[in-house]
Predict the 3D structure of the following.
Amino acid sequence: MLVGEAPGETEIHNGIPFSGRAGKKLMEFLEGLGLTREDVYITSAVRSRPYKWKEKRDRQGKVEMKKYNRTPIMGEIIAHAPILDYEIQQVQAPIIVTLGNIGLQRLVGKTMKITDVHGQVLQQPVLQINEENSFEWSDNNYCIFPTFHPAALLRDESKKISFFRDLKEAVNKVKG
Ligand code: URA
């Protein structure tokens, strides 16, 4: 199971998770490990597109307002939490690979940072939303495996090696 951050513009149009630029990168890496998107369950912390309006200037200098992706806020993460909790309980994935800080911290809290814990197996409870809309730890342990968000690879090529190594490790763990 892969847990990302939130859909972007492409995903909102076609309903296919990780089908935009970052998603294509992710799929290349999965294919490099002999997997396709059918082999993994893909979801994210938030299921609507967080966006902000910003001015965009075209080549003629004409300004128009455009939607840009942004990081989801806590209210959005809380609003979508029951969906992810349900998926985690239903899918019972042998390993949950979190992609980036939002997915990671949604499941294990803000004390963990992707740069510190990527590539490590975290065998522990996950955060689930309760009826008071606050997070509490699950009774069961899950196998969490954090790595970078593929969008980070588009910004910083040096993360590619770690990303591939992490994913390979996760796949080997599932295959046993
Ligand atoms: N980032 C995500 O977390 N999910 C997507 O579907 C696309 C980008």
